[in-house]
Structure formats: structure tokens, C-alpha cells
Amino acid sequence: MNKSPTQQHSAPGAPPAALIDARIAELAGWRGQRLAHLRALIHEADPEVTEEWKWNVPVWSHAGLICTGETYRQVVKLTFAQGAALPDPAGLFNSSLGGKVRRAIDFRETDAVNEPALKALVRAAVQLNTAKARSPAAGTPRAR
Known about the structure:
By secondary structure, the chain is α+β, with helices and mostly antiparallel strands. The chain contains 4 helices and 5 strands; from the N terminus they run αααβββββα.
């Protein structure tokens, strides 16, 4: 049985960047190109972003989860973990709109990427995560 590149690199200890590179390579075509482009934009928006590999998908974090990069037959999807709490004046979110927490952007083959707006969403997610990291833990009694 032949293994996909991500399965071949999924051995314990494989660097997440190598797994993401392998996913992009195995997708080929427009989906691989789109995922690579979105990855580059995330890094441009937050040079301190951490790449992870969870749930068999690329994950980008900074003081908490920012978004995941999922690929499907017709779309490449960025799911923002705290998307419902993020400002989206450009209206990028077009999927998972009914949830109370997450929001997603489905990119189809012919869709243009609004790069400035996407970078703004990534930066807003980082800002939200870092603000939460600085705030007192939920459920901890506050001094009066």
C-alpha cells in the first residue's frame, strides 16, 4: 500500500512545516497552490506564527489557535477558532456562520483572495489570543 506524503512524514517527531509542505505537494493543482498562498499570507500577517499539525490538517497558532487549513474537493477552507469574535468588515467569512465561536472562509478555485482583509483577520485573531492570555483566568475570583 502506498502512503501519501503526509502519511509518510507523519511519524512521531516530524516537523509540522514538513507535514504542511507534504500536504501542499500531494494536493498539487489549484488546491495546493491556494493552501501555499494562504500559508504565506498568514506568515506575512504574523511573522511569529507557529505552525502545527493537528487533526491531520495544518494549524497556525500564536498564544492560542488562530486557524486551520482544511482542503476539500471544491474548496480550501480556513477555519478561525474564534472567528465569531473577530471583526470582519470585508465580509470574508462565508462558511460555518451559524456557530457561536468559529467562522470559516471557503476559497473556491476561481475566488480571488482579499489579501489585506485576510491579513487583518489573522492579526485580529492574534490580538484576541494575546489579550486572553494576559487576562486573569476565567473563574478565578477577582480582588475587590
